[in-house]
Amino acid sequence: MSLSRLSVTGVRNLHPVTLSPSPRINILFGANGSGKTSLLEAIHLLGMARSFRSSRAAPVIAHEQVSCTVFGQVETPSGQTRALGIARERSGELQIRIDGQSVRSAAELADALPLQLINPDSFRLLEGAPKLRRQFLDWGVFHVERRFLGAWQRLQQALRQRNSWLRHGTLDGASQAAWNRELVLASDEIDMYRQAYIQALKPAFETTLASLIQLDDLKLSYYRGWDKDRPLGEVLLGSLERDRLLGHTQAGPQRADLRIRIGQHSAADILSRGQQKLVVAALRIAQGHLLNEVKRGRCIYLVDDLPSELDAQHRGALCQLLDELECQVFVTCVDPNLLREGWRKQTPVSMFHVEHGCIEESADSPGVKA
């Protein structure tokens, strides 16, 4: 997948702009606060229906504007062109269109425009809450296993019903048993998909990480969310009284975690920020390789402030890995000279200068119209 055309209106400090990016490497350079990250944010909105900088719509929308819109033309590996569009109102209202048709689910956007984000907050994947690592894991499972979304939706419905019953006690015995059974079935299916994905991810991650940094003791492990030696139905029965006291279900795939350790310690407690960034980059690039293997089309990488906390050697190694994926990359930096090298000679590289919210093409780059 690649964006052949991108139009952005009303996103933060960006002036309305239409870009024709390179299908491979796109370098956005300019001073801090110029709008480079805002363009990445706009692409993230287009593919995920949400910002990676704010959970609320209002901060994303430009001052005195009532909404923001992002449109994109996506080229598929088969040569087809798909049209994607998203509009967000200050009120929170969201409109999504794919090929001229309104859709309700952001999952359809994610499927049409797979995105990977590497930014200065990437270390949160290591040191943050398990929810962030579950999201990382489930992004990969969603894109390689078509049945995952249906199982995940069934899990969410079963959890809502069980948790409501735990808090209010409104279900009869037969209904309780039915929702417990549905919860167990969906949980076992999700766990099966996650385990299969982890088994595929580990060797891809180890190979990618070795190209960036030597951390021989770093290991990935998967905690499924309940005792590995006991079936979930048995665990739920044993924890029923505690679940009632707390008002929600304690065990299940909603408690799963991807653990990243060096020896017996969390990697986040040992590694520097630069090392953490390389580990997270290796994880996300490994996901890109898996997507390439099992799904027609490649994900788009959004890399914010790539040179940050990386020396020249590691910058070059990361650029090389991104280049070898043969996917579309949007990467930001302050000094473009730091990223001019590191790409293969035959790889198309486009340079865009961003200043005060305006984007202009540099020499030898595809056209840009504002």
UniProtKB/TrEMBL annotation:
Domain of life (superkingdom): Bacteria
Main location: cytoplasm
InterPro entries assigned to the protein according to its UniProt record, in alphabetical order: DNA-binding_RecF (IPR001238), DNA-binding_RecF_CS (IPR018078), P-loop_NTPase (IPR027417), RecF/RecN/SMC_N (IPR003395), RecF_2 (IPR042174)
Pfam families listed in its UniProt record: SMC_N
Subcellular location: Cytoplasm
Keyword Cell membrane included in the entry's annotation: no
PROSITE patterns linked: RECF_1, RECF_2
Keywords on record: ATP-binding, Cytoplasm, DNA damage, DNA repair, DNA replication, DNA-binding, Nucleotide-binding, SOS response
Entry binding sites for ATP: G30, A31, N32, G33, S34, G35, K36, T37
Similarity comment text for this entry: Belongs to the RecF family.
Role summary: The RecF protein is involved in DNA metabolism; it is required for DNA replication and normal SOS inducibility. RecF binds preferentially to single-stranded, linear DNA. It also seems to bind ATP.
Protein name per the record: DNA replication and repair protein RecF
Organism encoding this protein: Stutzerimonas tarimensis
